[in-house]
Amino acid sequence: MRDHETVPYSLDALPDDEAIARARAMRDRLRQRRTCRYFSDAPVPREVIEAAIEAAGTAPNGANHQPWHFAVVESSATKRAIREAAEAEERRFYGEDGDNPKASDEWLGALRELGTDADKPFLETAPYLIVVFAQRKGGIEEDGQTQNYYVTESVGIACGMLIATLHEAGLATLTHTPSPMGFLREACQRPESEKPLMIVVVGRPSEDATVPVHALKKKPLGQISSWL
Length: 228
Ligand code: IYR
Prior knowledge:
This protein is of the alpha+beta class. It has helices spanning 16-31, 46-56, 76-94, 105-112, 122-125, 151-168, 183-187, 221-224, and strands at 68-73, 128-135, 172-176, 194-203. The chain is globular. The two termini are 29 Å apart. The structure holds 3-iodo-tyrosine (IYR). Residues 90, 93, 111, 114, 116, 176-178 line the site of 3-iodo-tyrosine.
């Protein structure tokens, strides 16, 4: 290895049975997570959101440039503006604007089991929208110039850690990806060099919240893994 500054790294070694039990416990908690489309307006402590973003900010990423920005939207006016712009895009996607849908028949067919449509009331109801931006450039100093690497992969992993932490805190989330979503840059006052990646809607499920049965079908271990 080339010369570079280091500090020691160690982890407490766990007995095998404890390691297995912890991995299974984490798996079982994550199995409870659902993508939620029905939110209450019950408030959520800001500190939970802050800690979850800090957790996301520990994600492995290209050259440790940490190419992400999390814009937390709590203002009703901004939430309304995002809802209106997102619904306009979604009406075109689903063909609810009177034109042919932008989505293919196959795509619309795949969504049928989820029951989604262009209506996105949760964008106004939920207490927080975390709009996640990917920084194509900037480096660790956010100088707007330095090249970033593996940006989508890095920000994707960070989003996973964000969602897992929010779930651990007893909150419901929805990853929402209106397409195209360039409007989020203006709504969140972010620079041209940043690419909006997704909106993570955060809050408590409404009392009458449901999830589609389709979402409960998880591929078994034998299907999602192979051992070589
Ligand atoms: N963005 C649209 C469509 C949509 C697409 C996929 I793939 C989903 O898993 C869910 C929805 C919408 O939010 O309705």
